[in-house]
Every structure is written in C-alpha cells, then in structure tokens.
Amino acid sequence: MKLQFAKTALFSLMLSGFLFSSCDKTEETPDTGKYGLGVLISNEGTFGAGNGSISYYDLEGDSVINEIFQLENNRSLGDVVQSVSRIGDYAFIQVNNSNKIEIVDGKSFAEVGVLQNLTQVRYAIGDENRAYATAWGTWGADGKVYFIDVNTLSVSDSVSTGNGPEALLLFGENLFVANSGGWGLDNTISIISTTNKTLLKTLTVGANPKSLVIDKNDKLWVLCSGSTIYDANWMPSGHYPSTLVQVNPITMVVEKEIPLFADQHPSKIAINPAGDKLYIGGGFGFSGIYTFGINEVSFTSNKLIDKSFYGFDVNQDDGNIFAYESLNFTERGNLYIYSESGVEKGTYTVGIAPNGSSLKRK
C-alpha cells in the first residue's frame, strides 16, 4: 500500500513538472527589443541638410515613432538616407550623399559600426553572414557591388557593374543587379557569382532598369523605368519608354518584354505574397500604383491606387501595401497603408521624403 502511494505521488510530481515546463515554453516570446518587430521607413531628408532619418512603424500598436536613429544615438544620421534593410541581427542604413552605411542593432537601434567611402551607396541585401550593397561611384565611373562580411562588419571585396547599380536580388548563389544608368543611361543587368565574386554575364534589357522581383514560377521581373530625353538646351525632346522584362534566372535569358508607358517612368516594382501579381509605380513625377498579372500578355493600365507616391513596398506576411508620399523635400511626408485590394487602412506622418522600407522583397 505504501509502495503504491509512493508511485502515485512520484507520478503526480513528474506530471506537474512536465505541465509547468510546457507552460513555460508556451509563454516564451522572442526578444524583439524596442524596434525589432516593426517596419523601418527610410526618409531621404533635404539634400545637403543632413536631416535624413528612419521612422519606425509598430505593427502591433499601429503607430509611428520618428527619428529613431537620432533618438537612440544622440547624433544625426547623415545626408540622403537612400534605403534601410534588416540583415541578420542588424539594420543597414544606406546614406547616399554621405557615402556610408550606418549599421545599428536591429532591436535597440544603437550604433554598432559604419562602413565609410562607399561612394553614392544605394541598396543592400543579405543574411546572418554576408551582405551586398550597390554604389554608383563617382560621376562617369562604373558602379560596384560591395561584398560585406556581416560577422566582422567590414567590406571584403567588390565587383564592377554597369552605370548606376540600383536594386539587387539574390537567386541561388547568383546576384542580379539592375543598372539604372545613374546620372545617365544604361540598359543592362549584371549577373554576379557570389561564390567566385565574378561577373558572370551582362544581360541587355530595357532602358534604365531599376527594380526586381521573383514570381511564384521563379521568373525574374525587371522594371525598366525609361527616361526623358533632353536636347542640348536641357529641354525635353522625347522619351525612352518604360518596359517590363521577364528573365529566366537559371538560363540568364530574356523571355519577354512588355511595353508599359511611352512617356511615364515608374521606378518601383513589387509582388503580392502569392507571387502572381505585380505592382508597378512610385518615383518622382509618376502617379498611381498599377497591377499586372504574371500570366498577362500585355499591360492594360489597371490602376489600383490613384495617388502619387515616391516609393512603395508590399508586406509579404499580409499583402498590405506600404506607400510613401514625399510631398516635397523640406517638410514631413506620409506613410499610407492599403489592403491588397487597394483599400486605405491608415495614414501616418513620417520623415522628410520617405522613399522605402525594410520590408523584405521577393
């Protein structure tokens, strides 16, 4: 009888310990710190004023905190904040006219390092171990992609590209870089091996490619913005039209080219979470966000949102569209959030000249 009681008591004690341990594991939540969970908005600021900034949109609280770099580090961020990316445990902030990447802790936003002398740096992508950043370089020079060791926060190598390398996308071990022309013209994609750190191929596409996405069929879509043509007196005399180009990233061959606008020049492309619908729009002087199904054969000017934005992104978790209204380059702009179907869900004041965010791009 005593033995049976002892066995029963021991079993009850073990069961209680298991339940207590299970409850503990269920209640554990990841440490995201002050800024690790939400969306970071890059605000260019006024050219030459050194007032670029980062705004933080809290997904759970549906609210915005502005100037978080200045708030946490007691100093200015720099001149023209071109982009911001979450890479590993960090946030990389590309400060274009200051020729540097500021690196901060992704949770606290405390500064941890800075990469200097990256002339006209533009965008960065990466993971826990490696990162890649585009930079235009000096006037008239070829651009570069810089290889960055995320463990040591240092530049390890670089590869030359075409003029004005802009957005970049990693597919397998190959990096696809849109050569936007920078201060002039270009119509190429640079394809770089991240393993060998060499240029594999230069692919000809439409005029001034700027933005890239991958669809659900692993096809690469390139938005070629085109541009206005000016005569010797800097008067408009025509246009290079904007186009949408589909590339097979495995064979590295252009499969189709779709005309967009004869005299308008969108600069951003994004894709919905399902990977079957493209969004086209954004850029100085361009109005609207348009949609395009990946199986459509021609562009039919299907305008989803009838408003001018400097840039936009799509949240791959819920399909919401984050659109950035610049207004001008001296006063605060706005963040608009829309549903995937284009219904406005909220408007928030951010920094001067918002242009993009840390939302992941396919």
Describe what you observe in this structure.
The protein is built from two helices and 30 strands. It is 9% helix and 48% strand. The radius of gyration is 23 Å and the shape is globular. With 362 residues, the chain is mainly β. A four-stranded antiparallel sheet has the order 3-2-1-30. Strands 4-5-6-7 form a four-stranded antiparallel sheet. Strands 8-9-10-11 form a four-stranded antiparallel sheet, with no helix packed on it. It has helices spanning 2-27, 68-73, and strands at 39-43, 53-58, 63-65, 81-87, 90-95, 100-105, 111-115, 121-126, 130-135, 144-149, 154-160, 165-171, 174-179, 188-193, 198-204, 209-214, 220-224, 227-230, 236-240, 243-248, 253-259, 268-271, 277-281, 287-293, 302-308, 311-314, 321-325, 332-338, 344-352, 354-357.
